[in-house]
Amino acid sequence: MKLTCLSKGDGFHFPPCHILIICGFRILLECPVDLSALTIFSPVPSDFHTVLDEENSDHAAQDSLNAETVCWKRQKAEKPLEAKNLIYAEPWYKTVKNLHLWNVSFIDIVVISSPMGMLGLPFLTRVTGFSAKIYVTEATARLGQLMMEDLVSMHMEFRQFYGFEESGFPQWMDRKELELLPSALREIVFGKDGEELGSWMPLYSAADVEDCMGKVQTLRFGEEACYNGTLTMKAFSSGLEIGACNWTINGPRRNFLSMERENVHSSTPLTTDSSNLGDGNSNSEEFIKSLLNIDESLEEMEKLAFVCSCAVDSVKGGGSVLISINRIGLVLQLLEQMSIFLESSTLKVPIYIISSIGEELLSFTNIIPEWLCEHRQQKLFSGEPLFAHVELIKEGKIHLHPAVHSPILLSNWQEPCIVFAPHWTLRLGPVVHLLRRWCGDQRSLLVLESGVDADMALLPFKPVAMKILQCSFLSGIKSQKIQPLLKILQPKLVVLPEYLRQEVTCSSTILFSVFHFSDKETLRIPSLKDSSEVEIATKASQLKWRKLKKKGMKITRLEGELLMNQSRYLLFPAKMTTSSKQRTSLLHMGSPNLERLLTMLSNMNVSGSLEQRMGESDNVGVIHVHDPYKALIEVGATSTVITSADEKLAGLIFKAIDSIMEGI
């Protein structure tokens, strides 16, 4: 088995990506997009004439450039970044940096764990020759599809502003243009090692998304999928997000558990299924429950409460609140908490959700109880909505609109207000227009999630007077819990990224081997099994077993068809007729002892002499038979040859060899 790290990822929005080779099959684990790289582009400008003047001045300067002026411009670019340093063009999107180096037609399986991990799938599925099987949970598939459709919809504003690009590379990707960028932007474009320019791609279309989803096979938690009869894959909840999961991949000689990110406790998605982690006994389940830190859960709830209290304070001061958070689970909890805080403060403030997929997304979350935590599922049995937004929309406290220019929104707009709007990069979507409206208002509040450089994200909107609140929410199991969790799992081998080397320390109590991998490196993982198990579709009593004298084991000979099903070898014996049984010859193991063979031949009234060459083994040589007829027995290291003109004599010699050797 081999594991290649294509990207170590960067938080919730950009999960890690790996290639796993197991049983000869190549499996791509995750296919995300680095959306944080969009910050090198300017949002759609509000003043087109300013952009034209800037471009014309740049082109005029470019025509008269010489080596001295190029150097001067580079020095000038190292000054603090300004909005004019950004790229004014239709954005391209940065895919996994090393995935473009692989021939995608050689990928057999793609396994997706979360909606963020599938945003790059259409880049793969639109490539000629791609034929891999894609496995994803039902909830992740639907949420991921909505997110991709929303991305395409928001990106269309760039197309409408700049026009459709001609085929080929855009002007901003010209090497000379890129070399003039400030170093901070150049590093995002090229990467720290200067090898990531090839990972930039133009965004896929709505048709590409539809074609991609047609190639996806969806699964429920605990449902098994078998690939080619060899690998069996099963998803179980990771507790990170609705539909997000970890995967078990089982083969005939390998069992692999992929735990990219784990959240043992969750308030919205289904909690981690502990039966897939431990050995299934009560002690393991209790130990896993002991990992549930109530303080962590309270800390997350306190963060949400703090966001809501800050929002209420801003509204009381006459300012509006703009929330640009991507996690659907957090958004649903914030809507509930925000309504409670507003009600307790007696404020009559509208809550707007502005998104092209907002209505469909909220409707979907209220019909998926099997993907939610036990607390949410209990609401279904008691006749309550799964989430509070259902009643809040009916009461007119939450307003859903597909775009900022929606006629209904414009006619009912009211400030101050609280707005949930994408996109978290602050480069596209309704958030851009609202930020331009409120960025100069010191009473207003912008709520961001960690994962984006706030200084660079806010660059096009400076000077910014509004308050900025950037929150960091739990994105998986904390590093100090890795070692206790491994004690529960009791794996044979553990594979960890290099940056976690200090978190799992080897000691005499650890019964597993730990391997570490680095970016762009392929790690060979040794096999722990020297043999494979096979299930024989017949009763053992029907087989003729023979006990080996030296090795103390029983062995039998069987003719049939060897098949693979559900990661297990199956042997179906062939039906043998009487004539076929008679034709079956014995198979012997090892080499006959020459001295014993001479003694056995003598007992059969067959006389001969032994000829051995110097330096050869005692079991390698030639026996010359003199009586009753001449014959030759050549015993080699790997075979024994009987040469005789008399058939009966050859039969006697074979019988003698059979009597002193083990055969089946």
From TrEMBL:
UniProt keyword DNA-binding present: no
Alphabetized UniProt keyword annotations: Cytoplasm, Nucleus
Species: Cephalotus follicularis (Albany pitcher plant)
Intracellular or extracellular location(s): Cytoplasm; Nucleus
Highest taxon above the source species: Eukaryota
Gene3D superfamilies documented for this protein: 3.40.50.10890, Ribonuclease Z/Hydroxyacylglutathione hydrolase-like
Keyword Secreted included in the entry's annotation: no
Record domain Beta-Casp: where: 331-456
Protein name: Beta-Casp domain-containing protein
Main location class: cytoplasm
PANTHER family according to UniProt: INTEGRATOR COMPLEX SUBUNIT 9
Gene Ontology process terms (BP): snRNA 3'-end processing
One Gene Ontology CC term in the entry: integrator complex
One Pfam family this sequence matches: Beta-Casp
